[in-house]
Write a structure and sequence with these properties.
The protein is an alpha+beta fold. It has two domains: 4-102, N-terminal domain of the delta subunit of the F1F0-ATP synthase (Peroxidase, domain 1), CATH 1.10.520.20; 107-177, no CATH class. The protein is built from eight helices and four strands. It has a four-stranded mixed beta sheet, with helices on both faces.
Length: 183
């Protein structure tokens, strides 16, 4: 879940990028920056340290990315450093990515199943979700043996649970309230 502050930074960059026609390119650059800055423990610790001043952090960011990423993105990162918000970068990344997909008419859906989906099942799942959401769906698959059987879909913060484990849990809750749905 993204924070409201990260969403504001992402929205501002997205609007500028859309106006400039660079959303798709900047989306890739946002991910590249995250991979560069936050997968390496030393750079992550440097950026999060309260002992290191903003100026040193901005110099590092500028040296690493000037001329390699769009100036609008670099300015957004420097602004985050200026306001001690660089810790929100992963949320910013997720929100910008979401906005970029939405702009292109795409919707992400994470599908968990007890076993890996076969190609035919993956195709059928994608088609069913595209019909339901009326958008092209980017499917992310996960296996979760605790589901026992069936699937669980998470898309844009809404969960659709059609797993055996989910139905058993709903049944357990219904027993506690005395309200059992025969479906």
């Amino acid at each position: 879940m993204t924070t409201l502050v990260a969403r504001h930074y992402a929205q501002a960059l997205f609007e500028d990028a859309r106006e400039a026609g660079t959303v798709e390119r900047i989306d890739g650059e946002v991910h590249m920056v995250a991979d560069t800055l936050f997968t390496e423990p030393s750079s992550r610790e440097f950026l999060h340290s309260r002992l290191i001043g903003r100026r040193a952090k901005k110099e590092l960011v500028t040296a690493a990315f000037a001329g390699k990423v769009d100036r609008m993105l670099l300015n957004a990162i420097l602004l985050m450093v200026d306001h001690d918000r660089i810790g929100l970068y992963r949320d910013f990344e997720a929100e910008f990515h979401h906005l970029a997909h939405f702009d292109r008419g795409l919707r992400e859906a994470a599908v968990a199943s007890a076993a890996a989906l076969q190609e035919a099942g993956r195709r059928a799942m994608t088609e069913a979700l595209e019909k339901r959401f009326d958008k092209k769906v980017l499917l992310e698959e996960k296996t979760d043996p605790t589901l026992i059987g069936g699937i669980r879909v998470l898309s844009e913060g809404v969960e659709y649970d059609n797993s055996v484990a989910g139905k058993l849990e709903a049944f357990r809750k219904a027993l506690g309230t005395g309200k059992i749905n025969a479906n």
